[in-house]
Every structure is written in C-alpha cells, then in structure tokens.
Amino acid sequence: MKVRFAPINVPLKRRIQTVAVLQWIFSFLLLGQFCCGLFLLLILSNFWFLGVLYLLWLYLDWETPCAGGRRSQWVKNWTVWNYFREYFPIQLIKTSDLDPKHNYLLGFHPHGVLVAGAFGNFCTGPSFKNLFPGLTPYLHIMPIWFGCPFFREYVMSAGMVSASKESVSYVLNNAEGGHASVIVIGGAEESLNAHPGSLTLNILKRKGFIKMALKHGAHLVPVFSFGENELFKQVANPRGSRLRTIQEKLQKIMGFALPLFHARGIFQYSFGLIPFRQPIHTVVGSPILVKRNPNPTNEEVEQLHALYLQELSKLFEEHKGKYGIPEDKTLIFE
Q1: How does pLDDT run across 43-88, given as a tens digit for each residue?
Q2: In angstroms, rounded to a whole number, what is the distance separating the alpha carbons of residues 159 and 69?
Q3: What is the DSSP track for 105-173?
Q4: How many helices (H) and strands (E) does the chain have?
Q5: In this predicted structure, what is the pLDDT of residue 4?
Q6: Burial of 66 (0-12, 13-18, 19+ CB in 10 A)
Q7: Which spans are transmembrane here (predicted)?
Q8: What are the structural domain ranges in the chain?
Q9: Gap between the Cα atoms of 199 and 154, Å rounded
Q10: What is the DSSP letter of 275?
Q11: Could you tell me which of 207, 179, 186, 63 has the C-alpha nearest to residue 122?
C-alpha cells in the first residue's frame, strides 16, 4: 500500500485540530481502561487509602449519572473542543424553534462509529444554547461507562448522563421544562452499519424512547447528522458474515459493539484511527407534539412510532440534497 504523507507546510491551526481529535479518540477508546488501571495501581500502592476514599465517594455518588449528572461549564468550554469541532467541521442546523417551557426527547441518527456529531453539538461549545436558548441538552450514553473510576467524572462534566430509564425519566420529569434528552436511537448495534454511504438505521424495534416521550409528555424531535458515517471506513461485515456474527454476539455479551474501523494517521492519510476531515451537519427537525400519557397502549406507541419515522424521513429528504446525498438515496429502516 502506498502511503500518502501529509505535507510539511500544513498550517499550525490544522495541526492543533488534529491533536484535539487525537485526544478525543484516546478518551473515547482508551481513557476508561486507563482510569480503571490507574485506580487499581492506586489501591495496590502506598496510597491505597485514597482508593478507599474514592470507593466511598463512588458509593455515595452512584446515582448521580441517573439524576442529571454533574456538568462543568469549565470543561464544556475548553478551547480544545473548538479545535475539535473545526477539524471536521461540525455544524448544528436549526429548522424550528423549541419552546423552553417544554421538555424534549431528541432522537439522534445515525450512530456512526463514535458519535462525533452528538458529542460536538450537545456536549461542548455554545451552538445548542445559542440556537435553542433556555434548553439544556443531556446526552445519554451506556450506563457501563459510569462504573469506570475517574472516567465517570470526566464524561459527566461534559454533560453526559446514563441512558437508563431512570436517567431519561429524571431529565424529562422537570416540571418547569427546559430539558432536552438526546438519545442515539440506533445504539451500539447501529455502529456496525456505519460504512461510508450507509443509510441503514436500527429503529423498527426500538420503541422505548416513544414510551418515555408519552409517559412524560416530552415532545419528540428527530435529528439527522449528515456526514456521521463518512468519518471512518469499516472492515466489510455484511449481515450473515462470520465477522458480523462474532460482532453481534460480543455486543450482546458486553453491551457495546466492536466495529473494526480505520481512517487516517497523524502525519499521513493512508491508515490510522484519526477520522477523515469530513463535514458533519447535524440537522434538528421540528418537534412532534406529544400529550402526556402515563400508561400508553401498544397501539398508541405504534402510532407515535410510525409518525416519528415519517417525520424523520421527511427531515432527511428535505435536507439530503444540501449535504451531498444523491436524490435516489433513501433511508433504510431495520
């Protein structure tokens, strides 16, 4: 394979952007394991008492990820996140006003490999606050990450909370409104479909978010992130293949998927784990008004789910031409 090296005269700003994305990749893939190892070393060292104190803190603080988290405006405003968003770049697009007197459940699509658009738009920077004043976004991620010592503090500081039912209920149960739960509907399973050009969404059997919206009277908002699947290439894993079978089994056991992805490196463009510089346009659709119903029937859930799919398709069709999607391409629901 011929290696394409980056030119020597790359502007410093672009170099800094690459470093910003590199630390994000490290944080997403390795920081949790690093923090667990650090905690183990602490327990086994002469400073074991600090580890015991942290365990006590963990016990007392265990429910925080399900109770709105503990965000830090200082962390969310780090300059490194500006360079991170500029690398792709990432942009949030508003199509309709969202009244801060209500609570909202934003369904984010597609998952992509590492959900860069969701993190860049809803966890860092001022874009969401500027476009939707009065609303506070909460990005829900897998509960397993909040069991990692130290790492849990870091992800909570960026505004992430657990994806458990209790956590979503806590966010949407705010009587004064102004809360926005952001849920990546396809989940980890959908990351296995994250190939460039793929428009396959795992959503037909995912109706829990519909029930949550009905129970709390939270308005549903479809969100489509154009460019999310173009950030990485993934080893071919069509359904039925040996690799896909292994990935799906591991996903059921561990709770998260293991896509075999690659993109570019730090100083060359031929291989590595740094995402490609592909623009991400995250389009926030119009709200689907939902009336509170603490005990929705299956029929009511099915009706709202069908309406959500209809509005999601409409959002995609209205904007796909602006972001390089051919007119003959449509969403595929699985």
Answers
A1: 999 999 999 999 999 999 999 999 999 999 999 999 999 999 999 9
A2: 7
A3: EEEEE--TTT-HHHHHHHTSSSHHHHHSTT-EEEEEE-GGGGGSTTHHHHHHHTTEEE-SHHHHHHHHT
A4: 13, 11
A5: 83
A6: buried
A7: 21-41
A8: 12-333
A9: 32
A10: P
A11: 179
Instruction: Pull the structure tokens for residue 311.
Output: 């509005």
Give the chain's largest Cα–Cα span: 64
pLDDT in tens, 40-50: 999 999 999 99
Tokens of 310: 């209809």
**CA–CA gap between residue 129 and residue 282 (Å, rounded):** 15
Give the CA-trace dihedral at 167, 169, 175, 176, to 10 degrees: 50
For 292, the token pair is 């509170």
pLDDT tens for each residue of 177-233: 999 999 999 988 899 999 999 999 999 999 999 999 999 999 999 999 999 999 999
Q: How confident is the model at residue 258 (pLDDT cuts 50, 70, 90)?
A: confident
Note the pTM of the prediction, 2 decimals: 0.95
- Evaluate whether the domain defined by 12-333 bears CATH number 3.30.450: no
Q: What is the pLDDT of residue 253?
A: 78
Q: Is 9 exposed, middle or buried (0-12, 13-18, 19+ CB in 10 A)?
A: exposed
Give the CA count within 13 Å in the CB-facing half-sphere of 171: 35
pLDDT value for 1:
65
∠ CA 24-122-286, nearest 5°, is 145
Name the band, by pLDDT with cuts 50, 70 and 90, for residue 298: very high
Contact between 104 and 180 under an 8 Å Cβ cutoff? The reply is: yes
Both structure tokens of 290: 């939902």
* Whole-number Å distance between alpha carbons of 125 and 77: 6
User: Do 271 and 265 form a contact (C-beta atoms < 8 A)?
Assistant: yes
Residues sharing a CB contact under 8 Å with residue 264, sequence separation 6 or more, in sequence order:
270, 271, 272, 274, 275, 276
List Cβ neighbours of 279 (8 Å cut-off, separation of 6 or more).
88, 89, 90, 91, 227, 323
